[in-house]
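Exercise (ungraded).
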Amino acid sequence: MIKTLPMSIEEIMQLIPQRFPMLMLDKVIQLNEDKIIAIKNISGNDPIFIGHFPNFKIYPGVLLTESIAQASIILFNQFNNSNDTKTNKTPVLYHTNIKFKKVVVPGDQLFIHVNIRKKVLESAIVDGTIYVNDEIVATGSLTFTIKQM
Amino acid sequence: MSVYSQEVEKIRGIIAEILEVEVNEVEMDTDLVEELEADSMMALEIMATIEKELNIKIPESELPNFGTLNEILSVLNSLKVANL
């Protein structure tokens, strides 16, 4: 492992190309060659809740999937020496298979666990599970192609 | 040791699910690329799912040999022999 833990959002931004409002990780608390655990805090102040939904706030499942994808990018990019995310190879989603078990609402803290199941050349499959208070809120797998961006 | 018929049906089901075709479309010599429009990512998903379901490790170098159900079974048979 080459990164110091916990990894701050500033360090996360050196490894992933996403920026506001698409930063779906706040901190990385565990990272090794095959596994990452990251945290995302859900705030009622998040602008996504303006539209999702106007009368009650539910965090979109597609953004839970995105948080697993971003944790996966850190997992794949952790050994890159370059801090320039523009020159790094970035995993691009090919197929998602995530099941959503419980709704996520403001005040929830997501614990995003991702394991590499299979990595072959420029392709990879990961298993991801998101917990809130030790309960699974989303789980499944993502398949990536890894491309030069 | 060979791949048991129960495992053959399981693998056939895995292929059908990932390629989104009916199970009976996956015959022993059906070309997964030419006839069922599989791509390299689907082949990877088939390989990874078989590994998980059969609790077996398949070398990455075998990916090009995932052209038909028959070829996949040959790979699995050779691995099982190698693991004896």
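Further reading is listed at the end of the chapter. For now, observe: Helices of chain B lie at 5-19, 40-54, 69-83. The CA atoms of residues 30 and 68 of chain B lie 6 Å apart.
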